[in-house]
Amino acid sequence: MRRGDLLAEGEPEREFHAGIAARLPRKTVAGGALIRDRAGRNLFLEPTYKPTLDIPGGIAEYDESPYQACVREVEEELGLALEIGPLLVVDWVPAQGPWSDALAFVFDGGVLDPATIDRLRIDRVEAHGHEFLTLAEAGPRLRPSMLRRLALAERALATGTPVNADFGR
């Protein structure tokens, strides 16, 4: 489908001023999944590479959509090919320190039954472990912007309306 869509677009447009495309800013794009258990608690990973909790997902690779990145990363991190549902939040994150600004997409990862939870195989290179927690329980171990983003994701689940946010607001 994607190849056909690209072919239907025709030849890429030419640059009016040579080299301008290479000078345009680049953004980091990430896709994560809000995955819950039957009690309504969210699945959090304990990453090996940072001190705060995170949801399953990760950075999109070159020419990969945020949704595709989410599907790929969830399978890599959890050892399961889960059906990832609709978009809940798009959140712009400002540049900070060495990191460029980013767009963080959060998708509905669904509700896992106990048998599926038992089949989780956490990638130990990426995470020390995992926990199902409410936002109140996870809050002290999350960056404030992530806590705000996930609260918006829970609101989107409840209302059925995706949220556009700036740094979790």
TrEMBL record:
Residues 25-156 form the Nudix hydrolase domain. Keywords: Hydrolase, Magnesium. The keyword Signal does not apply. It holds the Pfam family NUDIX. PROSITE patterns: NUDIX, NUDIX_BOX. GO terms for molecular function: hydrolase activity. Its cofactor is Mg(2+). This is NUDIX hydrolase.
